[in-house]
Amino acid sequence: MLFKQQALLRQKLLVLGSLAIGSLLYLVARVGSLDRLQPICPIDGRFGLHSQDEIPLRALQFKRGLLHEFRKGNASKEQIRLHSLVQQIPKAIIIGVRKGGTRALLEMLNLHPAVVKASQEIHFFDNDENYAKGIEWYRKKMPFSYPHQITIEKSPAYFITEEVPERIYKMNSSIKLLIIVREPTTRAISDYTQVLEGKERKNKTYYKFEKLAIDPNTCEVNTKYKAVRTSIYTKHLERWLKYFPIEQFHIVDGDRLITEPLPELQLVEKFLNLPPRISQYNLYFNATRGFYCLRFNIVFNKCLAGSKGRIHPEVDSSVITKLRKFFHPFNQKFYQITGRTLNWP
C-alpha cells in the first residue's frame, strides 16, 4: 500500500515537473516572438548609439499621444514645454515630383522614429501670399517634435516653381532635398488622370490625353501641356543646381517604391544619416488595394487613401511611343546628372 502511494506521488511530481518545464519553454518562446514582432527596433544600445542621438520608441509613442491631446486642446502648453517639444523648420523637404509618389514616400518615412512629418502640403515657398507671411509662419505650420528629430514636409509644386530654389536656399543652404520620380510618360498619364477625375466629379467634360499631349497642328509632343513639361525632370533640376550641389539631392525611384519599397527607404535613411529602423515588418502588401500598407506596431496599421493608385485610361500606343521617344534624351541627361540610372524605356 505504501509502495503504491509513493509510486503515485512520484508520478504526480513528474507530471507537475513536465508542466513547469513546458510552461517555462512557452514563456521563453513567447518573449522571443514578441521581441521579433517589434516594428521598429527600440533604441536601447542595439546599434551602439548614444542616447542623445535617438529617441526611445516608447517615449516617442507617448509623445505622439501627448501631441494628439495638445491638438485637441486637452494638454497644456506647459506640458508641451516640460516634454521638450518644439516646432522645427524642416531639415529635409520632398520637393517633387507631382504624381511621383510624394505622399507614399512621406508616409513611409514617418515609420522611422526619428522622423516627424507635416501632415499637409504647406506651399510656403511656391505661394507668394504664404511666403510673404515669413519664416516664423512656416515654422508654426510644422508638427511638434523632439529637438533630435528630423521634420520633413512635402510640396510637389516646389520642384517646378521657378522662385522656390532661391527661397529655400535663403532659408537653409545645407538642407537635404528628396525628389521622387516615375517613368515620365506614366507620370504624365497619372497627372492627367487626377485632373480628369476632378472634372468628372464636377460633371465637366475634358479632352482625351492624346489631344492634350500631342499638338494637333504639328503632330509632335505638346511641350506647352503642363503634364508633359513636369516630366522633363532634367530641365527643372538644372534650375535647382544653380543653388544646391547634387550631393544635397537624393533621387527616389517611385516605380520601385510601389513594388519594392524597403530598399528605396533604406537608401533614404542612409541619405538622411538616420540609423536603420524601417524593416520589412513595417510594410505589408495589401492584395485588395494592390499596394503596400504600413504597420507601425502590433495594433496600428495604415494604408494610403483610396484616391492613390487610380486606374489610368487607355492611351493610344503610338502616343505612348512618341512620348517615350521624346523623353529619352532628357532621361539620359537626368541619369548623367544624378548618377542614378533608372529602368525606363
TrEMBL record:
Its EC number is 2.8.2.-. The active site is at K99. It is a single-pass type II membrane protein. It catalyses: alpha-D-glucosaminyl-[heparan sulfate](n) + 3'-phosphoadenylyl sulfate = 3-sulfo-alpha-D-glucosaminyl-[heparan sulfate](n) + adenosine 3',5'-bisphosphate + H(+). Its main location: Golgi. GO terms for molecular function: [heparan sulfate]-glucosamine 3-sulfotransferase activity. This is Sulfotransferase. It comes from Salvator merianae. The lineage of its organism: Eukaryota, Metazoa, Chordata, Craniata, Vertebrata.
